[in-house]
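Request: How about a record?
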Amino acid sequence: MPVGLFRVCLLVITAIVNHPLFFPKENGTIPENTEEIIQKMKEREESLRLEQLRLEQEIADQEATQKALEKAAVEAEESKEGTVRWDMWTALSMVIFLLIELWRQDFQEGNWQDIGGEEDDMAVLGKAFKGVALPDKAVLASFYEKRILGTTGDMARMREMVEGFADDLLEALRSVCNRDADMEVEDCMGVGSMYENWRVRKPFVCDLIVPFAPPEPYCFRCQTWCSGDSFPPDEQGYGTIKVCRADEDESGCICDKTKLGEDMLCLLHSQVNSTRPSSEMEDLLCFKNTQYLDADQVMKWFQIAVTKAWNRISHKYEFDLSFSLLDSPGALKIKFKSGKSIAFNLTPVVQYENSDVYFISHFPRSSLAADVPSSTHWFLTFAVYERRFIQLVSKTLPANACHVSCLQILSFLHGKQCSLTGPSGLTNYHLKTVLLHLLQARPSQDWAPEKLEARLQDMLKFLEKCLHEKKLYHFFIGNGKVPAELGFPIIFQRAEPLNLFRPFVLRRDIYRKMVDTFHEMLRNMSALINEYTVHIPLAHTNGIRKEPL
């Protein structure tokens, strides 16, 4: 009980002491301070909330940046792997392409020229040789001796006579020309079948080329289809000749390519030399308003010069000289009082740089061949190198080798067939090209005299293969196996091979005529040979001819 009263009293006393009315001054501002604190707390809360939002945004931005970097790294890795795979396929494709290109070049340069076993070739080349039998060795030997061998002495005498007269004529030509204005003529050179000793068809015609050069201070600058300039396919094998001053820069000054103002003067060239009158270039035999040598102008100049030269020396000779072909500059004919005549070609040419390749103004060609693109395009002839190659190879062949005999027999048969069925696109130059390829492909011992029949078959098979494929490549152009002893220009060895049968690809009528003529020649071969062969006793039919071919 007393404890309960004590607790009640203590509670009352505590309530009285803590009542606000006992302390009005001290506790009068408590409500105002509380509101201020609450306001500050709200502001602090708002500040903390904004700071939290800012930090969350920064964290989100960092995470987005990190994800972007990771994604970029993954994409870069995938792109790198794709690039590596693409580079690998590109490299592999390039290797395959190079292997194919090397195989193609080898195939064009020589592999396609290889001649395999004779029986295999007979089966592969088709029906042309089926049922065709060549005469045996004895008949071929008799034919060669009776029809061909006897003409060798006639050719030698004719060459000697023509060369002597041509030298005299060119010496007179130099004397009638103006040394300061006319072209300078050099000594002539003999080329072609007469000088390679395989001409068989009469009349015999000597082919002589005459290099010429412009007067000082001019010079010739030659461009070919394989010198880097763009030439269309129908101009392969041709080139152009530019007439320039010897002191003129090869690339030419800019004053020749742009129009200078009236108050401007080129410091390298005077006003006199900067422009060349049209008449001056025409005097240099150039095409009108150009610096390119014109083959037609050269033809006119050469014919006039030869006529003047002959008028000066004609009193020394007891024969007449005339032009046998109006469209050929140097097709000359000597007419004796007895009625006999001798024909020869004296053709002006331009030397290519310091080599024995020449630009020829009018190349003897079949009327069925492709036309010259223009009179400023000159055909390139490799006749000097062809003659040297035959001479070089002949030194390595057995004594009395049959290579020339094969070409002579084939040329004779082809000429006889053309006289029966008319001319075709196939020429003696094509036949010689076949021989040049075989001389390079066959070992030396295969050209022994007793193998005449086999090598003649090789030439016919090779020619049939080329006709079938419509491809007969020029022997020198694109041929990297030309002997270094010849000194042949490397630019032509590195050029693309030149297909001599290309003009016939688009002219099917001419190609058909050429193939038909070849097949007719095969069928008529035995008859043509027997026609010019004396009767051979039976005892000698199995023998082998011992006389030199």
In short: Residues 121-247+280-534 form a domain with the Beta Polymerase; domain 2 fold (CATH 3.30.460.90). The mean pLDDT is 79. The two ends are 169 Å apart (CA to CA).
